[in-house]
Amino acid sequence: MQFIQLVIGGISQGCIYGLIALGFVLIYKATETVSFAQGELMMLGAFCGLAAMTFLGFPFWLAIPSTIAAMAVFGVLLERIVIRPILGQPQFSIVMLTIGIGYVARGLITMIPGIGTETHALPVPYKDQIFNAGALVLNAEQLVIIGATATLCLLLFAVFRYSKIGIAMQASSQNQLAAYYMGIPVKTLNGVVWGLAAAVAAVAGLLLSPITFVHANMGFIGLKAFPAAVVGGFGSLPGAIVGGLVIGIVESLSGFYLPEGIKDVAAYVVVLIMLMVKPNGLFGERLRKKV
Amino acid sequence: MRFIFKTDYGQDVNLAKHGGHLFWYGLLMVLLIAAPWLFAEYWLAQLTFVLIYSIVGLGLMLLAGFTGLFSIGHAAFLGVGAYTQAVFVNMGAPFPVALLLAGTLSAAVGVIVGLPALRVKGIYLGIATLSFGFIVVEVLARWESVTGGNSGIHVKKPDLFGWKVDSAEGFYFLCLVIAVLATLGILNLLRSPTGRAFVAIRDSEISAQSMGIHLARYKTLSFSISAALAGIGGALYAHKLTFISPDQFDILQSIDLLLMVVIGGLGSVHGAFLGAIFLISMPQLISLTKDYLPTAVGQAPGLQGLVYGAVLIAFVLFEPLGLYGRWLKVRTYLQLFPFYRQGLFKRQKSFTKSDRLK
Q1: ipTM higher than the 0.90 cut
Q2: Per-residue buried b or exposed e for B275-307, using 16+ beta carbons within 10 Å of the residue's own CB
Q3: Could you list the residue range(s) of the whole structural domain that residue B205 is in?
């Protein structure tokens, strides 16, 4: 029973990692760049939700969509203002750029007087509800995380599989120049992808904040989503979620069965092993350049 | 405008290309040697930190700027060097022996980290080094019998076979000598076939391989040299601070080191020094301007992070070659005056080329 309990805890934590990793993978697939600001986008989303619920006084059902929409717009603007000017530059300049964005976001939030340095609780209606299923104790927060992640995955899958814009994104992720020649507006699409990634990050932030509270440093959890993305294979959307679940469960079990201190590095040990054994991840594509 | 008339093939590989180089670098050397008598103790300490960070920066520059491998966990090597030095010096080992051990152990760890680098590239390597950095910090914090855990460890003064370096000036000269040796070593390496192989790997792995460069060997070599320099820098860092704890070598330190080479200018030895000057002087500049800002802004805890982030974004957007690139532009402007064109250093616009197909 305890084992199942731990696994469920791990799954809900893993869903959060998976959602952040989903943001990485979306951006990586479409623009071939890695965003180190994903954790900070999540933090901004959580603060945005907090502002909507407490200062603007929105009811829960209105606050959630408005936060997600606001973050999506923010993501599009971010791409337009700072990412697009360096499109096509070496990958690493964009990595440094997103690290810079992360610093600025964290700095700005901490600078808000009275709010930035405090820890806040997000007032969600399902807070502290507990269900008993046999000997299992289930938290409403955990169940909501698992449910929301599953819904979001289905939605994204449908978009990428059936919608025109999703297919265009797949094309542009394979070869931007060729996609451009085929009449796909690659630059606009990049903006949409950043918006989508920011929206997914906002969802992750809103789901996580009832558990860990809202504070300026919550974005550091994004560093654990990298292992999730790598374990799943960096270019694969279902891989990101599966990778997140693997990391979450390993972390949860190692925290209980292994000596203290292993839990914090379990994710990184898993990713190092993965990189040595199967560098392309569980669902990664194996591509080779042919001359 | 200076025209160099070449009469000898040796001129192509000379470290000093012309008399101007000799004169200006000589002047810089004289200034650095005279520094203890010119500057107050506080500024001398800052200068020592600049030298220490330059040594680490040289290593990271070799790896990131010249071999094209990015390490997001370089502070781990710094930590390994610092702790090795601390443990051996506290056991009574003389300074050079401990320094050698610190460099060697860091290099050995670098080889171990470099091994996955042979199979993975780009962002995967970044994440491998990032993960490694986290693991090293955790090991430093948990291996309490050797490292003293989270409470840290004190480091004794350096001891050069009986000559105790206990003054700030003495330690400054020690750092200066090591920094100069490291710089000359890197410059020498870069004009040797090994250095050329590194640059070839950075520019295109496939063409480097076709030219007969053994990728695995050179990548591992680059990792180990870079880690050794970081270890030596870490050893000096430990002596300068006299007290080290695991949280000084975390991810933020690694990002600071990356920030240093990117802002200094990737792919230039000058960049390591300019970046170190930037990294050390920035907090000072921020605290100087704090008094003139409104209290709500000036006293906010996030100010430093905000400024760092904004400067980083500005550099990547407007000056991708960093401070050294800016200096190149100024120099070209002066040399070509009045014929400098606006578009001389303009970047070509393009789409992202897929990295996955390598």
Answers
A1: no
A2: bbbbbbebeeebeeeeeeeeeeeeebebbbbbb
A3: 43-336
